[in-house]
Every structure is written in structure tokens, then in C-alpha cells.
Amino acid sequence: MEKNKKWDIFEDLTAKCYKSQDNGNIIKEHWYSAYDILLEIIEEERKKSPECFVELAEIDQKTEYKYNVQSWVDDYFKELSTLGDYDRIYRDGTRLINAFQWQEQSPAEIKLRVINAMERLGMHEAASRCSEEWVVQNPDNINALFAALIFGERDCMKENVIEES
Question: 134 Cβ partners below 8 Å, 6+ apart?
């Protein structure tokens, strides 16, 4: 696989993210830009080969862990949470969930962040519906159960979740 030149940009931006973090400064634009570049890389690689990067873990494997993408993505969403940037959590979390097949790993942590962001943005009905659908699809997932208990509106759903736990 020929290296996409945007990986150099991603690497530079992620270094700036952590450097600004170490200095006690939070430079949001570095984080936002790095995330956008990452998704551009994924889209461009899929145009060349549709089966490329179908799983988040595959990115690190195919790049020989040079960019530590999974850890950086986790840090990105933690940073957004710290900033209280619920719009970006909702938008970028949804983009991330839709970008991969999630057969090898679960998007549960990101899904929970997205549902929480929806609630914080005043999207109460959507957060409730999403959490209830999630627990029906994944009744054994602790994050789905938690989301349904916290954000779900149907009392019968909460009773079923409590009884099954």
C-alpha cells in the first residue's frame, strides 16, 4: 500500500495536540483538524480499495502502529468531553460509528458518548430512542443497558433491563 501523503499531516497535527496538552493549553483546532484529516485518509484509501480500513483496528495494523490511531481516537473523544464540546462529540462520534463495520471491536464507548451528547444538546427523544434501540439490539452490552437506564424514557424498558440484570 502506497503511503497517503496526508499521514504526514495527521502525524504533525497529533504531535501538536499532545504538545499543546502538555503545555496546559488546549488548542482545539489541532484536534479537530487531525480528526478530519484521519477521516479524509480513510475515505481516500477506500476509493482506491473499498475493503481498506473497514475496521478501526485495521488502521493501526496496516500502518504498523506508526500513528497509534485507536489510542489517539480515544484521546480525541476524551478531550472533547473535557471541553464539553457535545456538538463535535455527536457529529464526529456518529461519523466514526458509520465509518466502520465494527465486527472486530465494539463502538460501545463512542455510542455512549454520542447518546450522552444528544441528551446534552437537548435531543432528548432521539437519545431515548437510540438508547432503547441499542439495548434491544445488544441486551448483554453493559453500556447499552446503562444508556437505556439513564436516557431511556419507557418505564417498561427500564423494568425489563433491571429484571434481566
Answer: 111, 115, 141, 144, 147, 148
One domain, residues 21 and 95: yes
Can you give the pTM of this predicted structure? 0.86
**Residue 84 domain boundaries:** 1-105
Residue owning grid cell 482545539: 28
Task: Read off the pLDDT of residues 117-160 as tens digits, 9 standing for 90 and up.
Answer: 999 999 999 999 999 999 999 999 999 999 999 988 754 444 55
- The pLDDT assigned to 23 comes to 67
**What's the CA dihedral at 112, 23, 60, 6 to 10 degrees?**
110
Same domain for 122 and 97: no
